[in-house]
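Sequence, please.
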């Protein structure tokens, strides 16, 4: 079991993921292996040039071009890792963790694990003492997610559990599901999140937060109205986030020409106490929201909520198999690196303990360890 702290510190080791940045700012992510070579049109680099070097080193290719070597951040890992399904981008994952108030030690349910991008952010937030139970309908997506998560953390995370199945039924399963009222936060990233609201309401503790990520306005509208109709949720709140970088060069300070625009909508609501009804809304209805009889206009027919209608591109079986192999390879390399780092740390501690035990008081003002005052 590992949370990957050893992989974030110290010099580069065999099995580490390293991000190389060329003079034009282009990124290349490699996994260090003895005897391996990184080839580019700007020359090539031997992995041995990086193994043992500190994080933030600069290496030179055979053609004389410099590359900055850094360990990938979580956001970098998400954007470069093998994918099965589309990932939740860092700008949305950060808001999910913050706006859902995912705290250390929390019990979190995630539906739609995809490639594991959001799972990593949730695991970082809950820590070793928390619990993230991720549900995924497709076993091939779950395998890719496991490889990506283990590749980032250096092995299986002690707080993570993955179940392959339908959230609506598996969540309340008496043997393998969650206890009623035992979950602090629920994160839904799925095609039809309203289908799971009854099960989510059962396991979510009073005051617990539901946050959903949906791609289209029609999904957003349907989910909001179903939450209101259930009567056991607070008034839903929805938003999207757009990220625009800035060009910084002397006095030339301006917005970048490109930006990260719409990726999806986020919606939050909180579970009311059992037997409590949501307060009646008192505001003027928006024009066009209802028909002449006061009935809300349905935004989309039930049967039309599918991948094709929502413009979701499918992933070929060949690409899924390749992504699964790549994720497993990265996970194995990271696990080996984490194990070697742990062994080195243990050896260092044993050597220090032996040196301290063999030293004699009176050799100097302090004992050999350097921190313990000499006995007088």
């Amino acid at each position: 079991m590992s949370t990957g702290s050893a992989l974030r510190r110290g010099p580069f080791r065999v099995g580490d993921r390293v991000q190389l940045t060329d003079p034009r700012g282009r990124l290349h992510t490699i996994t260090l292996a003895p005897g391996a070579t990184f080839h580019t049109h700007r020359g090539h680099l031997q992995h041995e040039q990086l193994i043992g070097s500190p994080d933030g080193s600069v290496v030179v290719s055979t053609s004389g071009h410099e590359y900055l070597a850094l360990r990938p951040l979580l956001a970098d890992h998400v954007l470069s890792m093998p994918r099965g399904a589309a990932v939740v981008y860092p700008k949305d994952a950060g808001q999910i963790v913050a706006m859902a108030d995912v705290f250390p030690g929390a019990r979190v349910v995630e539906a739609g694990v995809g490639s594991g991008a959001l799972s990593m952010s949730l695991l970082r937030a809950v820590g070793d003492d928390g619990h993230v139970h991720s549900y995924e309908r497709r076993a091939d997506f779950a395998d890719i997610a496991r490889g990506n998560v283990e590749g980032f953390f250096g092995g299986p995370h002690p707080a993570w559990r993955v179940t392959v199945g339908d959230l609506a039924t598996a969540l309340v399963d008496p043997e393998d599901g969650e206890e009623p009222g035992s979950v602090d936060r629920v994160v839904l990233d799925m095609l039809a999140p309203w289908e799971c609201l009854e099960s989510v309401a059962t396991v979510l503790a009073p005051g617990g937060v539901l946050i959903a990520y949906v791609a289209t306005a029609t999904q957003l509208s349907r989910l909001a109205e179903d939450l209101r109709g259930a009567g056991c949720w607070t008034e839903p709140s929805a938003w999207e986030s757009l990220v625009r970088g800035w060009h910084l060069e002397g006095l030339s300070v301006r917005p970048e020409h490109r930006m990260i625009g719409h990726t999806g909508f986020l919606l939050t609501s909180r579970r009311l106490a059992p037997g409590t009804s949501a307060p009646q809304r008192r505001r003027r209805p928006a024009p066009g929201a209802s028909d002449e009889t006061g009935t809300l206009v349905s935004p989309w027919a039930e049967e039309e909520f599918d991948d094709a209608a929502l413009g979701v591109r499918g992933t070929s079986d060949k690409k899924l198999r390749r992504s699964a192999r790549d994720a497993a390879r990265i996970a194995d390399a990271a696990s080996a690196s984490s194990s070697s780092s742990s062994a080195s740390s243990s050896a260092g501690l044993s050597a220090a303990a032996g040196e301290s035990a063999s030293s004699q008081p009176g050799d100097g003002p302090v004992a050999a360890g350097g921190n313990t005052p000499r006995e007088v």
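The helical segments are 74-80, 90-99, 117-126, 139-153, 167-170, 197-203, 217-230, 317-358.
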